[in-house]
């Protein structure tokens, strides 16, 4: 933990209303200001106690406080440094270690995730039993989406018409295995806008899940592999359609100590930069756009998705109340802190329902699973789609 970064906090409290856990519990030590106070105590010699670790674990890492802070406190860096220290020094209880072992030996590895897909229908039915065994196991069962079939991506998707650019595309782990239709839509949209899309083999997890949980060694290993794959592919731009992945990949230079040989842009960010050429067909829907935290707060990408959606004829974009409050997904948070995540998911679902939208648009697979689960729990009939799927439908002239 960097003392200079800690000392940037002047304890003004502007972060408090934006913090999801403070909004839930109203506890000072479960706010960014309170956690920074605990960080300061540790730097001054206080060991990490189970209580301190609990407050750090309860943080979603949503970065809403970074956006709100008038003093420019880099809480994002502080919480990542702190989580590395927690993993090094704090001894977790056996049940908690077992759950974390399952999560981090499963989700960053696409081939292992693939083996789970045929059993999704069974795990959903077993959710009550699994919850009694451990709440995290129950959360895994209830969050898992139904995957109808796998879509194997080609190595290259050629531009439609005149080629304007060549880009790489991250397939990802959770996105690739649980939402293959999103990757297919992303590649089609880029191709229809004049891009050759290079999708190199050998991809896996970019390291985001590990970075956000303090698993420094695993994060670096996965990041190095991702850099190697795309540098070997010879692309100078990599387009990412998962907010958490894009946020982490943009910080590869800091994580690995050197700049990768390519830049990273979110899909909406890249399309806004490229400029539209393909014709948009009408989509007569009312949609609510959800700001994924690692897109809005960590990457600062807010206007681009709204502009892209707003350019579709007959599509009405509605804002969600409390849009800056996290939905409770936050990487693996909804697996490791299931009750807090469930409360935040229900809060987000209630906010979505007030918009009267027919479709919720999200730009992150974790958010999609989290909000869809909360909407089902609340009995709401609303579909969730990725920004890429909406653009793809408009460009192809088909209904969602």
Automatic annotation (TrEMBL):
Top-rank EC class of the record's enzyme: oxidoreductase
Keywords associated with the record: 4Fe-4S, Electron transport, Iron, Iron-sulfur, Metal-binding, Repeat, Transport
InterPro entries linked: 4Fe4S_Fe-S-bd, 4Fe4S_Fe_S_CS, Cys_rich_dom, Glc_ox_4Fe-4S, Helical_ferredxn
EC number(s) on file: 1.1.99.14
Cofactor dependence: [4Fe-4S] cluster
One Pfam family hit: Fer4_8
Catalytic activity: glycolate + A = glyoxylate + AH2; (R)-lactate + A = pyruvate + AH2
Domain of life (superkingdom): Bacteria
SUPFAM superfamilies: 4Fe-4S ferredoxins
Gene3D superfamilies: Alpha-helical ferredoxin
Keyword Zinc belongs to the record: no
Residue ranges annotated for the 4Fe-4S ferredoxin-type domain, each copy included: 1-29, 50-81
Signal peptide: none
Cofactor note text: Binds 2 [4Fe-4S] clusters.
Claim: Membrane is one of the keywords in the record: no
PANTHER family in alphabetical order: GLYCOLATE OXIDASE IRON-SULFUR SUBUNIT (PTHR32479)
Known role: Component of a complex that catalyzes the oxidation of glycolate to glyoxylate.
Protein name: Glycolate oxidase iron-sulfur subunit
Organism from which the protein derives: Nonomuraea insulae
